[in-house]
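Lab notebook: predicted structure, single chain.

Context: the supervisor wants predicted structures on file for every construct in the current expression panel, including those that have not yet been purified. This is the next one on the list. No modifications to the sequence; it matches the entry in the shared construct table.
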Amino acid sequence: MFYFLNTHGQVDPVQNDYYRFNRPTTSLRAEVSQKIGLNYIRVNYGRPNVKGRKIFDGLLQYGKIWRLGADYATILDLQNEYIIANDTVSKGKYALYAIPHKDHWQIILNKDTEGWGQYTYDNTLNAYEFRAPLEKAPEFTETLTIGFMNTSLNHGEIYFQWENIRTILPIKVSIKHKEMIERDINIALGLDTVNVAYKYYLASEYYFLEKKDYPKALEYIRKAIEGDIKWFYSYFLEGEILAAMGKYKEAVEAAKKGLGPSKENNPEWHWKLNKAIKEWGEKK
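Prediction complete. Output recorded below exactly as produced.
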């Protein structure tokens, strides 16, 4: 059997089924990916359509297992360790299943990624289970949609939306994953290579936004500025850090240094800096 890979290296099961030659299918396969932390999370799934049917408590009965997609198993590919809801989930590939209920879904990560929908489902191979409350979808969704939203450096949400409902699972990097991030930052800053100043800027942004370690963030942004990162965004970040530390007078002075570069190169940032100067100036 020949194996066809998409651009992300994910096997397309429809292409690899000898008895179902590669052709368009009713529930077309799709793949969505999102980088969170150091690595990507990918979902490969079949996308069924409503087609005028009642889906929940209709086509899909409450309390019954569902492949959370169509045709072949929906595959969740975690390329690092993450915390999903409150459980630490190991790196690897899992089949996604759901048991719909009136007010929530039970979402299941199963070890058998070679199965064909719920017909080969074996609950003894369940690795993780989550209770996900339901909410009304912002709009009617004809085609099952899985995606990511509210993403930041180290966290985000994966959502499942179909017909009139949506459910969401929060995802964030694990403690082990976070330690890898900080290790990589320290290694990068210790290397005598090009763009060292910009690495200090990125490290400062990380420690400011994710760690809330303001002294270290301030140390790093100043090293970036001492290097060649004397731009409006670096002065703004320095101001943000100082403001978070309650040093509003110093924050104003930092932001003022960015007015010259921003006026010449970026009117939007120039407006943003002036707005921050006004707000911080009222607090100092």
